Amino acid sequence: MKMSSRNKIKRETCMVSKLCEMISRGDLRNDHPQQRKSGQWEEEVRDNFIVTVIQNEDFDPIKICEQLTDNDVILWLIDGLQRCTTIENYKAGKFALGKKINPSVIEYQEVKKDENGKIVKDANGNTVYENVTFDLKGKSYAQLPERLKEDFNNCPVWVVEHLHCSDEEVGRHIVRYNSGVKMNVAQKTITYMCKVAKDVKKLSGHAFFSDCASFPDIKDRNGTIDKIVNETIMGLNFFDRWTKDATKLGKFLNENASKEMFNNLNEYLDRLYNTATPTTGKLFNEKNALVWFMLFDKFVKTGLPDEKFGEFLNNFEELKNVKVTLDHARKPKGAEETNNLSFAEIDTCNSTKDKSMIEDKLHILETVMGEFLGVDFTNLCKIDALGDNTTPETAISSDGECPDEDGMSDVSALDFIKRNVNPEATEEDVDVCYETIDYCKNKLKGFDKNSKLLDYHNDVALVAVIAYAIKNEIDLDKWIVSFSNHNNTYPSDTKENYTYMLNSLKQFTNNVAA
């Protein structure tokens, strides 16, 4: 029988000492991949919380999710990580209390002893107590009087435990409990990524980010590296779906990113760790890491040894000033608008995470690297998608265009829609079309989720048909359900595929109207 929401919650108290023991033994896990990392509190907040514990004053309950597996029961700490790790670290002697605590001097009762250290008794034989004071400023746990150590360890902690939770329920509780807590965008995004959070965290812990890119611990704790990993997975695999909205991006990857994509990026990180230096690795900063990872992806398709990419990185301090002509103008900081820019100049422009800005930066880097290495990146395609024996020369078709897996030209959904449906279309319009596909796939009754309509090859054509339907106010629900169930072959050319789908939509609409 399914448990009710009320029956799935248990409330109890435990002492600080027991809580520390549970975490130390691993009985209580404080490393859930969707939970933000410890060390978020400033020292003043941290120290005053310890004063609260020493005085046995009340503080918010911690929350735990119980998750049943095939072989075990896992208890996840999902709210209260900062409180628990602060308690652990203070008891372990990792910090002493600072000066900004209130109160700094506390009063408590202590057993009175005489000059020989014996306990004083009154006339009736009862133990005599006296009020004493102790200044907590600068004191570590080891420097506390035994009575205060005892008070610290015996402080009661209220615990709310959610029983029999699924991955989705754990993620929902993390979001719910953090809704009123100040989390930055990157930290909040990972809470929506229950299916791939472990993969993201594995990559964000790669030595490349700490040893080469030199991200400090604070960037790791505040989710910056998680955000870079998310952006890179999106840029390498779903750039047509790019959005600078970190939450939307995270939710999309949660549903669409595969293990192979994370494994591929892990391989890139391994290779770059052996290629970049602590100096050149700093190019992969928060602002431009995505562009550099995408550039390395392009480089890999050349088949050249990684040392050549390292040479380019080593010479980039000079090459960053080489100017490249764009087909539109940009306005660098402190300069006039121009379409002839170097990477150093375009890097001062606004809109860092706009898709068009990423494309412009990548174009400049490709051009400069192409000249440096003697490679024509304009004719370089996704060689790996064409087979292991494909070379840069054989990857180019006779008319100079780069075919994808089915011989289609590599064209973005936005470009295709502008040429064939609506010249005023925007990236937001494309996002709406893709959201419509997601709705059809996950919510529309009767839609065949295994239909080849959802294959990558048909993606651009289908998005264009949806854009056409939206522009002309056509309800396509019934058509797309029917089409997904009765069509398993499609033209290989994107334009032919679009025409094929559009004719089907028009015919279906006419038949319904008749």
Annotation keywords:
514 residues, elongated, alpha/beta, 46% helix, two-stranded antiparallel sheet
Overview of this protein structure:
The chain is α/β, with parallel strands linked by helices. It is built from 22 helices and nine strands. It has a five-stranded mixed beta sheet with strand order 1-7-3-4-2. A two-stranded antiparallel ribbon has the order 5-6. Strand 3 (62-68) and strand 4 (73-79) form a beta hairpin. The longest helix is centred in the C-terminal third of the chain and has 20 residues, at 494-513. The radius of gyration is 30 Å and the shape is elongated.
**What is the strand tally?**
9
Shape: elongated
Low-confidence runs = 1-6, 381-410
The neighbouring-strand order within the major sheet is 1-7-3-4-2
Q: Cα-atom Rg, whole angstroms? A: 30 Å
> In DSSP terms, counting alpha (H) and pi (I) runs of 4 or more, how many helices?
22
Distance between the termini: 50 Å
Mean pLDDT: 81
Fraction of residues in H or I helices: 40-55%
Please outline the major beta sheet.
5 strands, mixed
In terms of DSSP E residues, the strand content is: 5-15%
Structural class comes to alpha/beta
